[in-house]
Every structure is written in C-alpha cells, then in structure tokens.
C-alpha cells in the first residue's frame, strides 16, 4: 500500500496545476480531477522502517485529510478463486473465501497480546520429517528437475515466506539441487556519487563492508544463477511492455556482461529479454550511507517474500511459516494468492503436531473503511 504522503503530494500538485486554468480548482481535492483508487486494507500497510503499530496505521490513506472526500465501493466476489460448475464445489469455494476474509479481518482464532493464534485446517498442513526445506519444496515443486523447461509449471507456483533471510535460504537450497553449471555474478559497490561528493564516505567504508550489505529490494553482492531458474525483476525496465518490478522471468542464457531471459508472466509472456547490469541505489532503508550497487536487478524466485507476492495469482502456493508473520496483513496476503483451496499448503514451525500460527491484524485500520 502506498503511503498517504504520496497521495497528498499528488493532491497538492494537481491543485497547483489545475488552478492555473481555474482558480477555484485550488480548493478542490486533486484539483477537481476524479481519481480512482484500488486497494485492500486487509493487505500489508505502508512499510515504515522500525515504525510502531500506531505509525504504520497512521501512514495509510484512510488517515489522510483526503479520506473525507472518498466514496468507498466494496467488492464482494473473490475473482482469484476458480468458479466451480457444481453446487458442492461452489459451496467449498465460498467457505474458503470466507475463511480468507476472516484471516484478513482477524475475526477467527484466539486473541492474545494484540496478536491472534489461528488454527490451520489439517488438509492445508505440510508434515515434515525434520528437513523443512525438502518438505516445502517437494510439496510446491513436485518433480522439479523434469519440469524446469515447463514454463506453465514454473509460472503457476511459488513458495512464500515472511522474511528475506528465509527466502534466500530456500532459493539457495533449490539452486544447489538443480543440474547444470552455477555461475556467480559479483556486484561493484560504492557510495552514490551525490552522497560521496559531500561526505567523502567512499574513503571510509571498505569494499568488504559494502559487499556485506543485504536489504530488501536489492540483489546481493553475489548473485548465483543457473540456466532454467525463475527470477524476479526488481526494477522497472519498460513499463509499456509490462517489464515492471515484480515481473517473473526464466533464465535462458548466462553471459559475462548480460543475461538473456524469457518473460514468464504479464503481457510480454514468452518474449526474450536482455538484462544488463544497472546502478541500483536503495531508498527507504535504515542505512546510514547511500549505497550504490552495480548488479543485475533480479533475484532467484522459487521462493519470494510475502510482501513481494502482492499482486501475484498462483495455482500452487507453499507457505513456509517456520517463523510466524510479523506485521499486519501478511498471513492474509499469503493465503489469498491461490486460485483454489487445493493449491494452498502450509508448513508451520513448532515441530510435528503444531497446527497454529500467529496472525497479525491491526483492526483499528478498518474503523472508517
């Protein structure tokens, strides 16, 4: 979800522009223009690094002065879930859709210390014999080695986890089991020129320190790849062609200075694209320096973070909850990515016999929706 300040900045900009045509437009929201917003307050709220619950809730658009001008229209049909032909299947879909909404609104489970303990139905659980990575991979990617060239197979499934650390562990595990030569690509890290020119930080911080930095939305210093692995784009390359942040591709060639990949999702599906290295400067981080990393703007995406999965529609989701979700909307986002109940499987921490997990819902965000 976008921070309310972005909407307020757009409002002020449009008022300023439109008032040059008619001075009265300065008093109208968005300069008198009709703006259509789409979103779901059950999903994750704006990311506030080290922010409190109150700060996160107050960052949402319904805490802005603009909300007084909004007319809310509620959608009632879950378009992701497949429409079944017979009555029994339709009833099952409706029950699953209600369960997803109850997860999102925090109306199911036992509340304790502002969080909620939710019992996961037995048919959704993955049982592990101690090797959790193997269990989640075998469930989500059955017969993976024989399906690496099957784009439909790769497009319709993913493993989701709450944190980047867990996601990287799963991706590295899968990569190590695949045939073929593994190629490592190393980034060049420095301080952004605009920052370095005023502070001289590039003489203070050694390359080893810059290389060790790992944050969300930025590829690591060492990027390990094999032909046939799915990857996710981390930057917008060509929005008109649908090559946007979050698009998934499959590696087809590994060059020294450029990669070739085939688009897995979106309007450009099936097209081959050349991926160059790019200078990447992360924003909205808690880093005390302005890092610039020259690297391919991609991540291996057999597994992805729950936050990154927003907007995805998948036939098969393996939800890895060795550690519970930690912020509003994550569990709801994860369980609502699938097209059917049969496509969702969940692996919980806590050992054999554990069937509950923590759900985090900031119910106060729904008060004026």
TrEMBL record:
Occurrences of domain DNA helicase Pif1-like 2B (ranges): 208-254
Matches recorded under Gene3D superfamilies: P-loop containing nucleotide triphosphate hydrolases
GO BP field: DNA recombination; DNA repair; telomere maintenance
Domain DNA helicase Pif1-like DEAD-box helicase per the UniProt entry, residue ranges: 1-113
Superkingdom of the source species: Eukaryota
Keyword hit for Transmembrane helix: no
InterPro entries: DNA_helicase_pif1-like_DEAD (IPR010285), P-loop_NTPase (IPR027417), Pif1-like_2B_dom (IPR049163)
Necessary cofactors: Mg(2+)
Localization of this protein: Plastid
Enzyme class: isomerase
UniProt keyword list: ATP-binding, DNA damage, DNA recombination, DNA repair, Helicase, Hydrolase, Nucleotide-binding
Transmembrane spans: none
The protein's Enzyme Commission number: 5.6.2.3
Family label: Belongs to the helicase family.
Protein's recorded name: ATP-dependent DNA helicase
């Amino acid at each position: 979800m976008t921070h309310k300040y972005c909407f307020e900045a757009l409002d002020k900009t449009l008022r300023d522009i439109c008032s040059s045509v008619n001075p009265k437009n300065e008093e109208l929201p968005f300069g008198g223009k009709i703006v259509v917003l789409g979103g779901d307050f059950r999903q994750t709220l704006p990311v506030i690094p080290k922010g409190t619950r109150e700060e996160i809730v107050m960052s949402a658009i319904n805490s802005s002065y603009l909300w007084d001008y909004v007319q809310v229209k509620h959608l009632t049909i879950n378009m992701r879930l497949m429409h079944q032909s017979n009555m029994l299947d339709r009833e099952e879909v409706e029950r699953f859709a209600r369960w997803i909404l109850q997860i999102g609104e925090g109306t199911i489970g036992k509340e304790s210390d502002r969080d909620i303990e939710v019992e996961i139905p037995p048919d959704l659980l993955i049982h592990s014999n101690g090797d959790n990575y193997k269990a989640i991979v075998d469930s989500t990617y059955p017969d993976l080695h024989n399906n690496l060239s099957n784009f439909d197979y790769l497009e319709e499934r993913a493993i989701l986890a709450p944190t980047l650390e867990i996601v990287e562990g799963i991706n590295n595990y899968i990569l190590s089991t695949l045939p073929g030569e593994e190629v490592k690509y190393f980034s060049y890290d420095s301080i952004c020129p605009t920052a370095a020119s005023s502070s001289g930080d590039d003489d203070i911080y050694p390359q080893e320190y810059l290389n060790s930095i790992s944050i969300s939305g930025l590829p690591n210093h060492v990027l390990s790849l094999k032909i046939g692995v799915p990857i996710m784009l981390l930057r917008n390359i060509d929005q008109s062609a649908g090559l946007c942040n979050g698009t998934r591709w499959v590696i087809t060639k590994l060059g020294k200075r450029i990669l070739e990949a085939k688009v897995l999702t979106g309007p450009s599906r099936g097209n081959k694209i050349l991926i160059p290295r790019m200078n990447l400067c992360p924003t909205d981080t808690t880093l005390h320096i302005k890092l610039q990393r020259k690297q391919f703007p991609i991540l291996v995406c057999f597994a992805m973070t729950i936050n990154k999965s927003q907007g995805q529609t998948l036939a098969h989701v393996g939800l890895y909850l060795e550690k519970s979700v930690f912020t509003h909307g994550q569990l709801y986002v994860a369980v609502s990515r699938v097209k059917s109940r049969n496509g969702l499987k969940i692996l919980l921490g806590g050992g054999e016999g554990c069937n509950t997990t923590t759900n985090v819902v900031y119910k106060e965000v729904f008060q004026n929706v």
